[in-house]
Amino acid sequence: MIDHSDRVVSRREGRFQGIGGLDLYYQSWHSEVKVRAILAIVHGLGGHSDRYSNLVQHLIPKQYGVYGLDLRGHGRSLGQRGYINAWSEFCEDLGAFLQLIQTQNPGCPVFLLGHSLGAVIVLDYILRYPQQASVLQGAIALAPTLGKVGISPIRVLLGKMLSRVWPRFTLNTGIDISTASRDQQILAAYAQDTLRHTRATARLATEFFATVDWINVHAGDWQLPLLILHGGADRVALPGGSDIFYQRVNCTDKLRIEYPGTYHEIQSDLNYPEVMADLEDWLERHLPSEVVQLGRGSAELEFPSLLEPKF
C-alpha cells in the first residue's frame, strides 16, 4: 500500500481455483476513494498481468479499479507454459475470475478487456456464455488475433499435425520482439522480463485457430457494447482480422479505432496516451448513469516504482 498524502493506492494479489482446481494468480489495484467501475484484463500469449501498468496509471485516478489475472501456463499461475487441454479451460477460468471480482465488489459495474490472445478469450467467452456475460458493461479488444498472425506457416502446420499425437509438444512462437512496440525502453524491459515466455504447444495452436474460426462464424450474435483498438502496423495480429469481425457484428453499439503506425503492444507503444484517452472516453460513455457523477473532481495520483517498468 502506498500513501500519497490524502490518497492511497493499494495493490493486492491473491490466488483462485481455475477449472480442474489449478492454482491461478491475480492482482488488483484500487485507490481508497469509491470505485465507479472495474476493468478486468486478460493478457496475451506469453504475457502476464504486470504488462498493463499504463492502463493502471491512467484509470486509477479516474476512480476505476483494475484487475488482472495470469492465465494458466503463464506468469505466476501454475500449468505447463503455453499449454491447455482444451480452449474451454480458458473460458471457465475467466468465468471464475469474473465471479471473484463480483464477489469482492458487489454491485460494481465490470468491463472486460482482452489483449491479443486474451481478446480472443474475451470474445469467445461472451459469445458462448451470453447469459453470464450480460452482467458486463461492455468489452474491449486490444489488437485481437482474429485473422492472419505473424507466426511462420510451418510452425502453424506442425502444431496442427502434432496436436492429436503429441499435444504437449512445444515450439517457440518465433515472434520477433521488435514487433511489440516502437519504444526501445519497452523492448528492453520485455527482454529482461523473467515472467514472459515465447512458448506455445501443439494443442494450444489447434484450439486457438478453431476458436478464431468459431468466433468469426458467430460474430453476428454479439450483443454487448464493443470497443476494438488496433495498431495499423501490427505484424503480430494483422488488423484486417479485427476489421472483418467488426463488420460482421450486428450490434449497433460498437466502435473500432485503428492507429496508423502503431505496433502490437498497443497499450505500450509510443502513442499510448492517445490509446488511453480513447479507452477512457469509451468507458465513461458506457458507465451506468448513477455512477457517472462519482468521478467529478477526481484528483491525479502519482505512481512510483511499484508499477515500473511501464509495460
What's this entry about, in short?
With 311 residues, the protein is α/β, with parallel strands linked by helices. The protein has ten helices and eleven strands. It has helices spanning 53-59, 88-104, 117-128, 130-133, 153-162, 184-191, 202-217, 239-248, 272-285, 289-292; strands spanning 2-4, 7-17, 23-31, 37-42, 64-70, 110-115, 138-142, 170-172, 199-201, 226-231, 254-259.
List its salient traits.
311 residues; Rossmann fold; 9-stranded mixed β-sheet; two-stranded antiparallel ribbon; 10 helices; 11 strands; globular; disordered N terminus; disordered C terminus
What does this structure look like?
The protein has 311 residues and is an alpha/beta fold. The chain is built from 10 helices and 11 strands. The protein has helices at residues 53-59, 88-104, 117-128, 130-133, 153-162, 184-191, 202-217, 239-248, 272-285, 289-292, and strands spanning 2-4, 7-17, 23-31, 37-42, 64-70, 110-115, 138-142, 170-172, 199-201, 226-231, 254-259. The strands form 2 sheets. A 9-stranded mixed beta sheet has the order 1-2-3-5-4-6-7-10-11, sandwiched between helices. Strands 8-9 form a two-stranded antiparallel sheet. The longest helix has 17 residues, at 88-104. Residues 1-6 and 296-310 have low confidence and may be disordered.
